[in-house]
Design a protein that fits this description.
Length: 348
């Protein structure tokens, strides 16, 4: 069966997600400023409102995998799939884990040593750098994908109930982790993100219908996204200022609704940009296409910027330093990726 047509809007959604990733990491220090200042509140809101980004990337993976393979998956494809997908991610993951293992030692301690056992533990947990746990999650979904798509294709009731099944599995893992016994490396386990992956899988199977639905009900999905996001961030603000206290389950529920509404909004927003804003679409498409490289590179640039610039004693200078960190993280990483691509093309 021939391949389904490419989805250009997915790169625009990737661009939204990678901008949010860099925004989280560039503002993380500013959220720890003394509470009560205006800039601390702004950076805090931007930081927490961007926490949809890993779930959005997980959703994109579910969409792309099921959109690409659902109609043409067959016996014997598992080995080819694993070889192709895991080579794309495992080799970069190991190399960049090694880089950050050595780089962070040098930047923060001025010395470098290599402990193989410790490094293997870092690889398994995704803790060689604060952003690499995402790669561990994706590898788990890649390993499970042949089984998942086979079950979905074979059992109609599973295909129809993908979203509630994903939510139940994620909720069950949450209850076990918080109420029964802590799960090791919980944040890096696939069960922490099954709701978004299953949602993406469902969208990938029924993409045209759901894209049309998201356009028809864009005001509804946008309103849900805004209300859920405002509720989530608002509860965090109230907790930070000590005004009231909420159980962790309420934060998780608000974040889940927020993260499941954002993809529907992002699909119709991206389709509209492609139709109405060709110049912006070209920029965002290129940014989205480079998102994996930006994801890998930007923590090194942020660390360099933080270590090589003097301490900012005045608050307004620290604010400028934080804003600059965001642009360095996005544009600096993007520039390095483009330079690498040009060098690779020139040597071919």
């Amino acid at each position: 069966m021939p391949s389904r047509p490419k989805l250009p809007e997915i790169d625009l959604i990737r661009a939204i997600a990678i901008i949010a990733v860099v925004l989280i990491h560039s503002t993380s220090g500013a959220t720890l400023l003394p509470i009560g200042g205006g800039s601390q509140a702004i950076f805090f809101i931007l930081n927490k409102a961007s926490l949809f980004t890993v779930p959005l990337f997980i959703w994109i993976s579910g969409v792309v995998l099921f959109y690409t393979y659902y109609d043409r998956w067959g016996p014997g494809m598992s080995r080819v799939f694993w070889t192709k997908r895991l080579q794309r991610i495992l080799i970069p993951y190991v190399l960049w884990s090694l880089f950050y293992y050595l780089f962070n030692q040098f930047m923060f301690h001025g010395t470098v040593r290599f402990d193989m056992i410790y490094f293997i533990k870092l690889l398994i947990s995704g803790n060689a750098s604060y952003h690499l746990y995402y790669m561990v999650i994706i590898v788990q979904f890649y390993l499970l994908f042949p089984l998942l798509i086979s079950v979905v294709r074979r059992l109609t009731w599973v295909r129809r109930a993908l979203i509630p099944i994903g939510i139940v599995i994620q909720a069950g893992a949450y209850v076990i982790h918080h109420e029964v016994h802590p799960l090791p490396e919980y944040a890096s386990l696939f069960v922490s993100y099954t709701a978004l992956f299953a949602f993406g899988a469902f969208v990938g199977i029924h993409y045209s219908a759901i894209a049309a639905w998201s356009e028809r009900y864009r005001h509804l999905t946008g309103s849900i996204m805004f209300l859920a996001g405002s509720t989530f961030v608002g509860m965090l603000l109230l907790h930070q200022y000590g005004r009231t206290s909420f159980g962790n389950s309420w934060f998780e529920l608000a974040l889940l609704v927020y993260c499941m509404a954002i993809p529907l909004w992002a699909v119709q927003w991206s389709l509209r940009r492609l139709a109405d804003s060709p110049r912006l679409s070209v920029v965002l498409t290129a940014l989205g296409a480079a998102s994996f490289g930006i994801y890998l590179v930007h923590p090194a640039l942020l660390t360099l910027w933080g270590r090589l610039t003097p301490n900012q004693d005045q608050l307004w200078l620290y604010d400028l330093h934080t804003i600059a960190a965001f642009f360095i993280g996005v544009l600096g990483s993007w520039l390095l990726i483009r330079m690498y691509a040009a060098m690779k093309k020139g040597s071919a």
